[in-house]
Design a protein that fits this description.
The protein is about 40% helix and about 15% strand. It is of the alpha/beta class.
Amino acid sequence: MTGAAFVANAVTFGRLLRRAGMPVEPGQTRLYLDALSAVGVTSPALARFAGHAVFVRRREDLPVFDQAFSLFWRRHGGLAPDAPVLPRMRQSEPRRPTFPAPAHELEGPRLEADLPRTLALASRREVLRHADFATLTPVESDEALALLSAWRPALPHRASRRWKPARGGPRPALRAMLRASVRTGGEIVVWKWLQRRRRPRPIVLVTDVSGSMERYSRLLLRFGHVLARTGAPLEVFAFGTRLTRITRDLRVRDADEALRRVGRSVVDWNGGTRIGESLHTLNRHWVRRAVRSGAIVLLASDGWERGEPALLEAEMATLRRSCYRLLWLDPLAERAGFAPETAGLRAALPHIDALLPCASVGSLMRVARELDRE
């Protein structure tokens, strides 16, 4: 087997594991190639153990990997752990398409036999829910966005200053009990209670639409459209080199039309990133009108700052004093070995309440659940 064919088959094996529901990243496939180069390909057991070390992160992924390994690295039937050598597969040169490429060119080399559908233990919806949005094909991206649009998150609430009757609560309803005591000669027979009314907590989404966030901007804006349709007090801003308020654009019921309107409103799409200057505009012109003291601010960016980190740190401190909670959403935070190395993220870390991933539909659902945590 030539080196090119070996690499192509290893890449296809990684895609097979991803289709089976395992969270496989491109870097793991390359690491698996390095591991096979170290242990050799003459022993199936060593190749299988190398795959365990690289791909298997959870206990429930172990049987999925073993089944995929036996199916993929076989000649006529399942490969036994004590087989003498790994079977030879059909050799083909891997394609190297330029980005973006048509969906049919992104398919790897075909196997000698079609993959059975029973191998996909997780449903397609679950795979799309947890897949990194940047790794999906255009068709899969549309399906993931449709899955996100069909979801209705629970709104975060806060206690208001108004009271309402309750069966039990922290405060007795003195006026109601005094009125009722007139019928009983001034004796309070039944105790009545009050509790605080609850109303939706304001949410502010500030998302990065610069070139470094190009693969995730569409997903984050669709997330903003989902939040807008819940009825929560929502403000949405987009920034690259400048800040643009897009709240009215996302109020359209149709998600695709809403994104088209956003595309016409935002003039610095896929450009540079100036987070500090954009937050300066937010703090000086929009905080009193949009970011109230009880609001939760979601700042989505990968932290690639072209401006001064000192300005970003000062504006983050100002924004943190103006809101209830400040959450930073980073699409790279879900990847293995992630560390806050960008200058913008390091400057912002002392002033945020949590750093959350936002690279998939499932991670955004977890963000929505985080909003309701007091």
